[in-house]
Amino acid sequence: MRNINCTLCELGDGCNNPCLWGEGNPNAKLMLVGEAPGHAEDIQGAPFRGMAGKLLNNILDRLGIDRKDLYLTNVIKCHPCFIKLPTGKKLKVLIDACRVYLDEEIATVKPKVILALGATAASAFNIKNISMVEGTEPASGVLVALDRKSVV
Ligand code: SF4
After folding, report:
1. Is the minimum distance from the CB of 11 to ligand 1 under 6 angstroms?
2. Chain Cα centroid distance, residue 99
C-alpha cells in the first residue's frame, strides 16, 4: 500500500508526491518498470510523464499498443529532489528499501511480462548485463530487461 510518509530511505524528503505508485490497468498482462519518478512525474503525481512519457507514448503508438492496457511503474517510488541518484551499492540500498512497494504492485497486478526499462530497473531484478535481452522468472511471469537505447 502506498505510504506517503515512508521513511525507509531519505529520497522522500521534499517530494511533492512521495511514494508514487504506478498507474494503469490493474489486470495488465504487461508491466513496464522504470527507474524513479522525474520532476514532471513528481509534479503531476503519476509515472511516465514529461519527456519520458512522451517517448513512451510515441513508442506505444508505433507498436499499436494502448497505454491504458499496461501497468506503468518505477522501481524507486520517490523523485530524488535533493540528491542525485547514486550508483553501485548505494543505489542498491535504495532499490532494496523501496522494493516492498514494487513487490506489492507485482503481486496485485500479476503481469505475464515485466519489462524493466534501463539498468536501474533491471538491477532490481538482479539483471546486471542488459546489453542483451535477458529473461528470468519473477513471481508472476517472464522478465525482460531492455537498455533504454534499445527501446528508442
Ligand atoms: S524511495 Fe521508496 S523507500 Fe525511499 S522514502 Fe520513497 S517510498 Fe520510501
Report:
1. yes
2. 11
